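Q: Entry one of two.
A:
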Amino acid sequence: MFQIECPYCGARDEREFHFGGEGHLVRPGESVDDESWAQYLYFRDNPKGVHFEQWCHRFGCGTWFNIARDTVTHEILRVYPITDSRPERKSA
């Protein structure tokens, strides 16, 4: 179990949040080939180190936001609004 720092409510237990998957995915346009569509739907990064994720404060303010988290230590390196672009990935 770990604590997540909600941008609006402060530090809360992980159980109050909903994991929304990898952050910063861009849906392809209408005229996309099958290979690109499959890549978007099924393939995700699974790095050992820094990973960018979407989270929602489900039992709080309901806000979606992004987290940069180290997948080895589970340390949360940064919490930032869903509208911000992805920060540069640094190895942990």
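Q: Entry two of two.
A:
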Amino acid sequence: MDIQIISFIETVGWLKIVSLPLIAAFIGWATNWLAVQLTFYPLQFQGVGGWLGWQGVIPRKAEKMAEICVDRTVARFGDLHDVFIKLEPERITAQILSQVLPRIEEYVDEVMYEHHAVLWDNLPYLAKRKIYDWSRQQIPRRIEALVAEFGDELNDLVDLKALFSQELRAHPELMVRIFKEAGAGEFSFIVKSGLLFGLLFGVVQIPVWYYNQSFQLLPLFGFIVGFATNWLALNFIFRPLNPRYLLGFRIQGLFLKRQAEVSEVWSRIIAEELITVEKVAQSMVFGKHAHRTRAIIQKHMRPLIDESTILRTLTQVAIGASGYAELKKTLHEKAIEVSTKPFHDQQFNKGRAPVVAQVMAERMKALRPAEFQDVLRPGFQEEEWQLMLIGGVIGALTGVVQWLFVF
């Protein structure tokens, strides 16, 4: 046997034998690296005819992942009113007033000039002053009551799934960023592990090549290495599902082992980018349940005119009942127009984001391993076989090149 091995080495050559595990290691590394890239990129479909091409798995499945995320985490907030209370409604009220009160005269002028410019131009300044002062006195308690009712009705006014889907449809890079930051260590492991797994497969290839040096073995092994290294890496990330102990060491899927850390990162990015106060306000005013939001705004803004004796008397006498009704409609529209402007303040949004992130992270950390995995994996699990198959095909092609240039 020793003579046969020596003869085999002399026939094939040391360099060619050593190249088997080295090239297998390269195949493992390259195919795993490619699998990670294909998971994230390209953000938009690149190809011909809408069917021959590729779009990153995560951008393509972003909306589905968003729905799963809402079901598994955000929906577990329970009553959104509880989250609203933690956001401190008085701060939300103060933010609105800080933007509205300094411009109260401008807003009143806009409302009056839109339909009743002649009346407003001819009104004595003293009368205007009383209307400005009345509005300035009434606005704070109206806004406070409005914010409180929004908090009570938040569950029915905000469709979180629709909000997530809309944002991720417009910005697929957000889900890519979430996964890249939350799973940086795991995706790095996928790439590096390909090198080790490929090397091990290459070592196994040496005795097989010793007994059978046919051409078909190289692309076959290349396919196995490319496919299997991807499969192994993915399973090391998500398996075993529950912690197991071997010789005192805790063994669990890498993503699952880092549940607390991943939850923090995942929740922070979603709170900063997706569930901001600004975007929730936009969803309330312009989203699926906008008609209910607008009805609440109208309910709280209408008394501004009805309870202002001077304004009600002037308008009814000067322009009649129909003009008075038109004025109230204009006020309502102006209130809707300015309702989301105070939340464009990035500093305010940034200051409220940690509150949402904390609530969401607490829910994610409390998930059982199977539930936590369901937040991260199902959206692209059905695509994993494609990534492994692509890795196998590239491995097979590398095996052909190996035969042509080495053997």
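A: Comment on entry two: The CA atoms of residues 179 and 266 lie 8 Å apart. Confidence is low (pLDDT under 50) at residues 8-13.
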